[in-house]
Amino acid sequence: MSGFLDGIRCGDCDCNVDWGEKRNTIASIAAGVLFFTGWWIIIDAAVKYPDQNQFHHAYHTCGVIATVAFLMINAVSNGQVRGDSYSEGCIGQTGARVWLFLGFMLAFGSLIASMWILFGGFVVPEKPAVYPGIAIFFQNAFIFFGGLVFKFGRTEDLWQ
Predict the structure, then answer these.
(1) Residue predicted with more confidence, 76 or 156
(2) What is the secondary structure of 16-31 as a DSSP string?
């Protein structure tokens, strides 16, 4: 999955853009837009439904955990997970793999929890306003996919 931008052609134009060298820039911008969109959606829901009965403020916890997972996943490079560039430290390659695994567990857990909040807190009780539940789910989905794009969309070859 880490080479999916290498084969992009620019269609019929004669602009001759080398997308391979701009891969890190494109992936970083796409991940930033996804992360920003997720938080923008939940801020919109919080402003639109400020009452605790319509939108319980404890539901923001899923987005905070997704953000922590985003940071945990991207704090470890692929070279550290493979063992190429990380031979020193207190726990080495195994520690990098455990850190990445915990980050993915938090990311998937927050995504699953946001679905549970959507259906258990808004759809099943048939509340008149379902938008806060949808906003929680989309916030976590955008942060999750932003983390995946930032982790696997970039290449480390340009860093060497």
Answers:
(1) 76
(2) ---TTTTHHHHHHHHH
